[in-house]
Amino acid sequence: MKKRAVSLLLCVGMAASLVTGTGAVVRAEGETEVLTEAAEVSANYPLTVSTFNYAKEPVEETFEKAPERVLTFWQNSLETMLALGLGDRIICAVGVSKESVLPELQEEFDKVASGKEYNEFVDTNAAMSKEYAIMMEPDFILGWKSSFSDKTIGDVDYWHENGIHTYMALNSNDISENRTLENEYTDILTIGRIFDVEDKAQEIVDEMKDEVARVTEATEGQEKKKVLVVEFMKDSIWNYDKTTLAGNMITEMGAELLDAAGDLGAEDLINLDPDVIFVIGDETKTENLTGDQGYASLKAVQNGAVYAIDLSDVYTSGVRTINGLNEIGKALYPELYTE
User: Fold this and answer.
1) pTM
2) Quick one: CA dihedral 113, 125, 60, 34, positive or negative?
3) Please, where in the chain does CATH 3.40.50.1980 lie?
4) Domain 9-208, second-level architecture
5) How do residues 283-328 score in pLDDT, each as one tens digit?
6) Residue 254 φ then ψ, to 5°
7) Over the stretch 208-226, which tens digit does the pLDDT of each residue have?
8) Residue 50: count of CB within 10 angstroms of its CB
9) In terms of CATH, what superfamily is 220-336?
């Protein structure tokens, strides 16, 4: 699944462990125990991180110091850097406009543009190429699996051979069979270790984990609400199942994600009849259900339990993960979000 949005390329200047079910392993050079005391040693250099190439094969990289010239692809990569206070290290942000950055990160984003000149492109695939990226002289590229296709900047091998580090978000595209909250936590913590800002990264992750714990503890023993997360496509309804981050977030927040095929028809949706439906997009997208008499029999429609949710909050979400958890929590348990 590709992220659907109008994309901008903002370029400045001229110029993780083998994933199993639990995510990436980060360790300092010489470590032999996977994930043992990682938090104590991973900020030390040299630091070895496992990531992937485009074929989803694990590759290891060793950082001798924190990167200083970073090329980021997409919202999660840019905003994680900003949230960690690393805006001054970004030389190029692909696929994100200043206006789309979280309000609380705008001040940090200003450091990206400080004293530098922007180039803007509407079509990121056409605008970004290996040649253009080389000209910017990055020392670290933070992106999705799709960032390293032949249509963009090419596979990681070239960059590694030339001393330029890379990292792929674990929930991006099809790197992981199951996209999970744990993968989002791992990405944030790994970036924190790479840049020696582990404490900040841990604070961000702890806020997410604490929210999940708060909600699940408060709702223990309650009957689980049956939920679907859908996106209305041109000719079908796409269902975000248990392999997706959105589906995993629903489950982790204590609801029951209904088991259904990836592609749904109107009749399938009516037969499933969930208690709550999240629709990917803004409020206008919910009208596909609430404004169509064909769906009037749905419990969720009758009870006003159809909610819009931003794709960026539930797909390779980075620091926006907390927003997704809060939106899901408010819809499922409004009594817990009264303040």
Assistant:
1) 0.85
2) positive
3) 9-208, 220-336
4) 3-Layer(aba) Sandwich (3.40)
5) 999 999 999 999 999 999 999 999 999 999 999 999 999 999 999 9
6) 90, 10
7) 999 999 999 999 999 999 9
8) 19
9) Nitrogenase molybdenum iron protein domain (3.40.50.1980)
